[in-house]
Amino acid sequence: MKIKYCTDYEEMSLKAAGSILSDLRERKHQRICTATGNSPIGIYEALVREYKKSPVLFAQLSIVKLDEWGGIPMGSPNSCETYIQEKILRPMEIPDERYISFNSDTRDPERECGRVRAEIDQSSIDTCILGLGRNGHIGFNEPAQVQEPYCHVARLSKASQGHIMVGDLAEKPIYGLTLGMADILRSKKIVILITGEGKQKVTKELLRAKIDPQLPASFLWLHPDVECYVDSSSFQHIITEPQN
């Protein structure tokens, strides 16, 4: 894992976006798995700005949705679907045929996970964009005694149920649909962003480079090409390494 310390959120976002754009310029046919939440917004905004200048660069880009809240309507403002449509697909004019997505309100979540797994198995993911959850989760791979390898229905932790995306819902989702740990680790490259309040302890544990199923993000140490961008302004009390 290559740790890249950044002075603030903006620098973190621009550096991570620059890495993704560099790959796109080398090979336009890219499949990117996209996380939701606050952490990657800056990346998506940077990619949209570049799209407006050079749309041809994105002509073969395809998107995979990392995860989805279970049991809420796809069109809900709280869904990952709405987030991705508004921040990625519509601004970059990516059509449905270049998008793989979990259906949030399916009647058969297990079957839906099987469908998505079959689709991503047809072609590998080039870059997987991740945020670090406050309890160390990535996607909806929650802390547990064991980790699921493939697309699966995940019972959500209290931490995930308290996420800002669903914070205003009277009834919080109790499960999510997500790529599994092996699906994520099969990506050719992984970009993980560490930013935000309440993540100091889990970040310190992650940087110890010890593999622990109770810290799902720690499995990223097993991957040969992980770029970990750290917003140092959020972690001044635990990060002492020199800035890059």
Structural account:
The structure is a single chain. The chain is of the alpha/beta class and 244 residues long. It has seven helices and ten strands. It has helices spanning 9-26, 41-53, 80-89, 109-121, 158-161, 181-185, 200-206; strands spanning 2-6, 31-34, 62-65, 67-69, 99-100, 127-131, 152-155, 175-178, 189-194, 226-231. The strands form two sheets. The chain has a seven-stranded parallel β-sheet with strand order 1-10-9-6-2-3-5. Helix 2 (41-53) links the parallel strand 2 (31-34) and strand 3 (62-65). Helix 1 packs across helix 2. It is globular.
Low-confidence stretches: 239-244
What is the terminal separation in angstroms? 15 Å
| Helix segment tally | 7
Q: C-alpha Rg, in Å?
A: 17 Å
Output the structural class.
alpha/beta
- Helices and strands, in order, run as EHEHEEHEHEEHEHEHE
* Molecular shape: globular
Strand order of the largest sheet: 1-10-9-6-2-3-5
Total number of β-strand segments? 10
- Percent helix, as a range, is 25-40%
Mean pLDDT: 93
Estimate the strand proportion. Answer: 15-25%
Largest sheet: 7 strands, parallel
